């Protein structure tokens, strides 16, 4: 019997994903204000410094480098880059809008027209190449003034400021952009990520209060979007890490389930199902957490849930109750070493089957369309003298993950409609501010110290992914 090759759904959205603060550059041009990303120094101590109260949230070029300041200069080279995306055959491009490019201080009375015009230009360029924009409203770059003057997302006033921002960009682009996401990897706020909740060393009470404000803000944005254009699709976005219990010890399994609920499900439960889950309410009671919930908040969250669920998937996580087990970390989470998996250059364990498990788990739980909005291999790419990069390791990683997505769709019945690998063009790493941690199909000649021509070069994976898109996922060889 001849085996019939299974394909992805017709009109499946193949593409790539980026974030404004990691590729645009032009951090202080055309009226843009400072963001939390702009005061984040480059280097492996980035996160440690940001957590330290001794580190002022200021720019000090005598002590630190700030790779985000020039990114890869997408601000001036977007036409060139979008042409390369079109050459690969992108159906969608996930990008973000910099809040501070529109409202420099976050609380301004009027938007910055130059910022709006820039995104007009980018969106029009994408549409010219028949690439559907997917826009994230807030991707790890809250305006710095909202941290210094208001204390970050624990302050209810940020809901009002975000509403003004969301309304401004939705009114401007609702007739051009169908797919939107509100907060990037919102569940990192459970652990108090500075990039997510824009607070340093906050208490657990403050973290959950900040998240409540983001849930309200997300529902307000969804309401505005649907009122402007009923065809708009608004999604939430979180990290998902498939979790395994290290052994069959009931205590280990229980620990895994508790971790799974608060990391993988909590934010999605609220934004997709529209209410605080019972396990979270119980957790709040046990830990003395009392949220300041205003009248109407819960109705808003209930009535304006998201249309689809998007998530980043890079690795799975093993939960153990044995303190002697070897630990690993990556992408805002930790766990125990999985002896069955290999790891990337940065120690992130590679688990393609875990993506299939994640897709099945999420679709069974929520029953809404899914969008894999980030996935990819951060690796050290070494070009030869002619800037030829044979990144077979990246092709192998992506091929295996794409194969598992296909199985999730055709064997498990999952409604998956989009896939945008992270960093489709090399950009600045969020966790370390490095350029050497590369994800792209396109190499950018720039090193960790900011040296290089910034010229773009196609990697071997460029043509491979082009063939994958052209064949709608059939080209796996």
TrEMBL record:
Output the superkingdom of the source species.
Bacteria
- Active site, renumbered: 374 (nucleophile)
| GO molecular function terms attached to this record | hydrolase activity
Q: Supply the alphabetized keyword list.
A: Glycosidase, Hydrolase
What the entry lists under SUPFAM superfamilies is as follows: (Trans)glycosidases
Pfam families listed in its UniProt record: Glyco_hydro_1
UniProt keyword Translocase present: no
Looking up InterPro entries in the UniProt record yields: GH, GH_1_N_CS, Glyco_hydro_1, Glyco_hydro_1_AS
Ranges in coiled-coil conformation: none
- Which family is it part of? Belongs to the glycosyl hydrolase 1 family.
Q: What is this protein called?
A: Glycoside hydrolase family 1 protein
> Per the UniProt entry, what species is this protein from, by scientific name?
Fundicoccus culcitae
């Amino acid at each position: 019997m001849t085996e019939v090759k299974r394909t992805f759904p017709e009109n499946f959205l193949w593409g790539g994903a980026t974030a404004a603060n990691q590729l645009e550059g032009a951090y202080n041009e055309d009226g843009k204000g400072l963001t939390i990303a702009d005061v984040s120094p480059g280097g492996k101590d980035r996160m440690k410094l940001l957590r330290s109260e001794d580190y002022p949230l200021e720019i000090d070029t005598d002590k630190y480098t700030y790779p985000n300041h020039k990114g890869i200069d997408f601000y001036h080279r977007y036409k060139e880059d979008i042409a390369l995306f079109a050459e690969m055959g992108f159906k969608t491009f996930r990008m973000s809008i910099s809040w501070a490019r529109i409202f420099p201080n976050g609380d301004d009375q009027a938007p910055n027209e130059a910022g709006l015009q820039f995104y007009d230009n980018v969106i029009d360029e994408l549409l010219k190449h028949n690439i559907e924009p997917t826009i994230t409203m807030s991707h790890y770059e809250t305006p710095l003034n909202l941290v210094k003057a208001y204390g970050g997302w624990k302050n209810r006033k940020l809901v009002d400021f975000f509403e003004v921002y969301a309304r401004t960009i939705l009114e401007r682009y609702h007739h051009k952009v169908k797919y939107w996401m509100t907060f990037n990897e919102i569940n990192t706020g459970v652990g108090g990520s500075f990039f997510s909740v824009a607070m340093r060393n906050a208490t657990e009470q403050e973290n959950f209060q900040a998240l409540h404000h983001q849930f309200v803000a997300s529902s307000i944005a969804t309401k505005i979007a649907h009122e402007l254009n009923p065809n708009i699709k608004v999604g939430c976005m979180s990290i998902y890490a498939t979790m395994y219990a290290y052994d069959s010890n009931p205590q280990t399994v229980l620990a895994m389930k508790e971790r799974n609920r608060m990391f993988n499900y909590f934010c999605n439960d609220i934004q997709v199902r529209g209410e605080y889950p019972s396990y979270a309410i119980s957790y709040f009671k046990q830990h003395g957490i009392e949220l300041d919930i205003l009248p109407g908040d819960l109705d808003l969250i209930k009535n304006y849930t998201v249309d689809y669920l998007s998530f980043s998937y890079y690795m799975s996580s093993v939960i153990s109750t044995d303190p002697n087990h070897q630990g690993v970390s990556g992408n805002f989470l930790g766990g125990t070493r999985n002896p069955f998996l290999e790891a990337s250059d940065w120690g992130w364990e590679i688990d393609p089957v875990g993506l299939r498990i994640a897709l099945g788990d999420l679709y069974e739980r929520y029953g809404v369309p899914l969008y894999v909005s980030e996935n990819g291999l951060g690796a050290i790419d070494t070009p030869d003298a002619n800037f030829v990069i044979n990144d077979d390791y990246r092709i192998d990683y992506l091929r295996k993950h794409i194969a598992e997505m296909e199985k999730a769709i055709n064997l498990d019945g999952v409604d998956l409609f989009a896939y945008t690998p992270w960093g489709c063009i090399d950009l600045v790493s969020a966790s370390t501010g490095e350029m050497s941690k590369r994800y792209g199909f396109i190499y950018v000649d720039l090193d960790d110290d900011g040296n290089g021509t910034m010229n773009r070069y196609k990697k071997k994976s460029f043509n491979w992914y082009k063939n994958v898109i052209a064949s709608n996922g059939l080209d796996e060889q």
